């Protein structure tokens, strides 16, 4: 078996998710190559070459792959896929955008968001917002798979003595006259990334306004936490979309998740119920969030949050 | 410009699902079914484009059992002009649906195809991207805003880091995210009128495609249950438990 992993990167740096996807590749077994596609991404390739278990990095460094638009990126992966039994990517918005397109180009199914590897062709994945876990088997010769990073512990770096995998340039350049990048508005934050943070504190509709999210910030600063939100808080315009946790937002599994003013709809639970410890602060003692919370505090958040910040 | 909208019949998003005792699948007997919420957003966007004069005709399509005609009627009541039902009792997943939709796109030659970003039953998030590959068209997935300008399509996409705007040549494939619009409800007179709108029923073999999923569903299980927790009486008690019992602070 031989596996191609699409590297995830942001701002010229390898993203943490990639090490989780390589770990999933290790669970499948076989030679693991990492594809780094993008523009000016040599540093990403170097970082990927240091991941444990990576045999080779294939570097497609070309303006054609800037912003990893779906059309050229899928064409590139489809071009390389003949060398592999599996193609894997993180279940990020990049992986979800590109991999189904690759699968259809190769006339195979795609398996989304696996959380466990049973065998090289059999995987576990959540369905129905995580309310059921399916075990699925692919009979396709090429398996195209997105990996939920929280399902796999990150593979380690090789360390200073471990050396590096070789980096090999890919010459193929995909033509693309169909899509053009116009602009990006990315959230700037000094806090840890939602998907990687050890502590996440999220606010819901109960926060009442965007300004009130400052009540979470003081606590997040003390705990080194990332800040998340429910869909209702995003839809109401309190905070931007990239903070949404849930079935259709980000999936998180931190050591500690604190849900504040969030009722606990199944779509929200789908994104956080694998957290190690869950705390809920809600003034309604009947709120469903308390059914999954290890520690529930029935209280008005406007009183509880300042007190919590002081106590920490 | 003609718009094709793909709609899927799924379990209503409010329903708490049950796994069958034999672990073969989720139990859908006597469960409330509905149009996939992301497909409602897709229909709404098509209707808005028609109201703006951008779209001339809206064709709603589904691939599924006879009962899925209910969801097509809903799409017609919301403003679609006609419907195509690709009827099958097979277990259809994203690739099979995309293959059937590709044939419809080939026949209808729309300027735009709008799908949901994900069906909330399988949570696949694949069909739009696959349809784009099969038709050789560009894709704008997870859209929170679309605009047709100068013969091109601008799509604002919800991505992990924030928002991204891309421009696509037409025809193009779009998949909807939650914030693209807020779907309207169908009014009673429109529901009545929808009954008279045309619905074309075809089989996958009429289209020359196989739609049954090739991914085998071996087992479906309930997720690991979380142990019920406790209520704490105060912020102090909470912090004490987190420090000394859970040891996460
Ligand atoms: C297709 C689809 C996908 C979805 N995807 C997601 C998703 O990815 N993520 C997600 O989160 N949701 C998602 N949803 C929405 C989900 O169904 C809920 O509507 C949403 O999670 C509710 O958000 P909330 O808990 O903040 O709001 P509400 O349900 O309104 O709850 C607010 C809570 O705040 C409490 N509260 C109010 N004031 C105070 C106070 N002063 N102090 C303490 N507590 C207070 C209330 O008691 C209440 O429990 C999706 C829905 C659909 C249909
Ligand atoms: N059987 C189907 N019939 C019609 N449209 C479908 C079908 N399956 C998926 N789709 C469309 O593709 C979107 C994404 O579904 P999926 O990729 O399967 O999660 C849905 O919101 C629909 O718009």
UniProtKB/TrEMBL annotation, chain A:
Pfam families: ETF, ETF_alpha. Keywords: Electron transport, FAD, Flavoprotein, Transport. InterPro entries: DHS-like_NAD/FAD-binding_dom, ETF_a/b_N, ETF_a/FixB, ETF_alpha_N, ETF_asu_C, ETF_asu_C_CS, Rossmann-like_a/b/a_fold. Residues 3-176 form the Electron transfer flavoprotein alpha/beta-subunit N-terminal domain. Belongs to the ETF alpha-subunit/FixB family. This is Electron transfer flavoprotein subunit alpha/FixB family protein.
From TrEMBL, chain B:
Keywords: Electron transport, Transport. The keyword Iron does not apply. It comes from the Bacteria. Residues 23-211 form the Electron transfer flavoprotein alpha/beta-subunit N-terminal domain. Belongs to the ETF beta-subunit/FixA family. This is Electron transfer flavoprotein subunit beta. It comes from Billgrantia campisalis.
């Amino acid at each position: 078996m031989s596996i191609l992993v699409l590297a995830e990167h942001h701002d010229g740096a390898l993203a943490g998710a990639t090490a989780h996807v390589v770990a999933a590749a290790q669970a499948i077994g076989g030679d693991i190559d990492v594809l780094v596609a993008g523009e000016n991404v040599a540093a990403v390739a170097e970082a990927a070459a240091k991941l444990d278990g990576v045999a080779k990095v294939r570097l497609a460094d070309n303006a054609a792959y800037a912003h990893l638009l779906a059309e050229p990126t899928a064409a590139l992966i489809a071009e390389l896929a003949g060398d592999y039994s599996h193609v894997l990517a993180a279940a990020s918005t990049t992986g979800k955008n590109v991999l189904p397109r690759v699968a259809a180009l190769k006339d195979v199914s795609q398996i989304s968001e696996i959380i466990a590897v049973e065998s090289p062709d059999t995987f576990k994945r959540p369905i129905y917002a995580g309310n059921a876990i399916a075990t699925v088997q692919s009979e396709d010769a090429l398996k195209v798979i997105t990996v939920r990073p929280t399902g796999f512990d990150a593979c380690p770096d090789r360390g200073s003595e471990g050396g590096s995998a070789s980096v090999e340039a890919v010459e193929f350049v995909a033509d693309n006259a169909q899509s053009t990048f116009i602009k990006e508005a990315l959230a700037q934050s000094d806090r840890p990334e939602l998907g990687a943070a050890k502590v996440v504190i999220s606010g819901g509709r109960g926060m009442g306004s965007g300004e009130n999210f400052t009540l979470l910030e003081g606590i997040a600063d003390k705990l080194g936490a990332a800040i998340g939100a429910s869909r209702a808080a995003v839809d109401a315009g309190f905070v931007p979309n990239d903070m949404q946790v849930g079935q259709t937002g980000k999936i998180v599994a931190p050591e500690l998740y604190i849900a504040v003013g969030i009722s606990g709809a199944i779509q929200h639970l789908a994104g956080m119920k694998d957290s190690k410890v869950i705390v809920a602060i809600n003034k309604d003692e009947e709120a469903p969030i308390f059914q999954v919370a290890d520690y529930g505090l029935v209280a008005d958040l406007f009183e509880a949050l300042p007190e919590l910040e002081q106590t920490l | 410009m003609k718009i094709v909208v793909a709609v899927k019949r799924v379990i209503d998003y409010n329903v708490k699902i049950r796994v069958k005792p034999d672990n073969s699948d989720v139990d859908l007997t006597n469960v409330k079914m509905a149009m996939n919420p992301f497909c409602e957003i897709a229909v709404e966007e098509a209707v808005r484009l028609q109201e703006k004069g951008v779209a001339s005709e809206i064709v709603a399509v589904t691939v599924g059992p006879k009962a899925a005609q209910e969801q097509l009627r809903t799409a017609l009541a919301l403003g679609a002009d006609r419907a195509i039902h690709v009827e099958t009792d097979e277990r259809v997943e994203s690739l099979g649906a995309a293959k059937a939709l590709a044939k419809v796109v080939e026949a209808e030659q729309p300027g735009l195809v709008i799908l949901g970003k994900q069906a909330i039953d399988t949570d696949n998030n694949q069909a739009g991207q696959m349809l784009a590959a099969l038709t050789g068209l560009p894709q704008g997935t997870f859209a929170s805003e679309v605009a047709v300008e100068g013969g091109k399509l601008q799509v604002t996409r919800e991505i992990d880091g924030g928002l991204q705007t891309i421009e696509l040549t037409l025809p193009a494939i779009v998949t909807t995210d939650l914030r693209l619009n807020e779907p309207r409800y169908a009014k009673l007179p429109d529901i009545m009128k929808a009954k008279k709108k045309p619905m074309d029923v075809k089989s996958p073999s009429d289209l020359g495609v196989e739609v049954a999923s090739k991914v085998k569903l071996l087992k479906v299980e309930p997720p690991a249950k979380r142990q019920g927790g406790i209520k704490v009486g105060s912020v102090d008690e909470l912090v004490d438990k987190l420090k000394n019992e859970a040891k996460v602070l």
